[in-house]
Amino acid sequence: xxxxxxxxxxxxxxxxxxxxxxxxxxxxxxxxxxxxxxxxxxxxxxxxxxxxxxxxxxxxxxxxxxxxxxxxxxxxxxxxxxxxxxxxxxxxxxxxxxxxxxxxxxxxxxxxxxxxxxxxxxxxxxxxxxxxxxxxxxxxxxxxxxxxxxxxxxxxxxxxxxxxxxxxxxxxxxxxxxxxxxxxxxxxxxxxxxxxxxxxxxxxxxxxxxxxxxxxxxxxxxxxxxxxxxxxxxxxxxxxxxxxxxxxxxxxxxxxxxxxxxxxxxxxxxxxxxxxxxxxxxxxxxxxxxxxxxxxxxxxxxxxxxxxxxxxxxxxxxxxxxxxxxxxxxxxxxxxxxxxxxxxxxxxxxxxxxxxxxxxxxxxxxxxxxxxxxxxxxxxxxxxxxx
Length: 387
What we know:
By secondary structure, the chain is mainly β. The chain has helices at 3-31, 34-42, 52-55, 213-217, 308-315, and strands at 56-60, 63-65, 72-77, 80-83, 86-94, 97-102, 105-107, 109-114, 121-134, 136-141, 144-149, 159-160, 169-177, 185-198, 204-211, 219-229, 238-242, 245-250, 258-262, 270-278, 282-294, 300-306, 321-327, 334-340, 343-349, 353-357, 365-373, 377-386.
């Protein structure tokens, strides 16, 4: 074998090995993630490829986070006593007068009286004394004859005035009739119209209670409990109004607990007015309670994503991730539970700004942050950013 052939045979394995190593290195670089490939090729001067926009992981304005230490509120209302009360009231009086009828004429008498509240006026009667009485006495109400009889007593029974004939303003007319030759004359005194007027003030009662903003905004359900002490045979309808709207109108179960559902649209933030009213009978309403049940405190939750290139920077401690929370600067205590990917921490401060390094809590890919208020919070801004 000549020298040239021998040299070729001894040099070829080394070149082949170098070629194989070169190919393997090329394939290794090709299969690396883009960020790592760039770092390898560019050396120490390489950047992670994270843009300025990608450094801001989360930028949100959560707003108000409601909180209530209790989920059930009982608004007690004082006991109520309602009774149907009617008082006999003199509606009109008339001075003594005489009615008669003779051969050449007659003398009549008209008496005008008013009824101010027809709806709540019952048992209207006409009473009078008749010291002198001869003939048949006629009495008309608003043009309708309601009495025609001889009066045998000086103090006769009262004459009932039908409610169907009564008006706001009424006219009673007195006259006398009899035989042609008989005496026809009546002298009347102590003439008065009396009626039973219902005292509405004792048939109704009003009370108030207060609902907070948080209570109203987080209302799940509500109801009114009350215990009426009454006689089931004699009671009438019980009306209950809440803020001018009738929420109950029925004869309740006496001597038993009663419940009426309330709805969010029936309730107001601030003062609420409850009116109880009956039509007849009497009630003592005890254990009156408006109960509101709130939904569980709702936490605020949001999500952010950490790309692999940024995550590598965090692992290499080239970057840190900061959580910043800005509250309304109202001077109140800010208390909350912060949960980042299942790791909890507490906020308890009056300052309007909160900041924390959460680099050790983030992970590559999807992340979440949850804020559970322990006081009512106004969160102006929530920011998660890599620095």
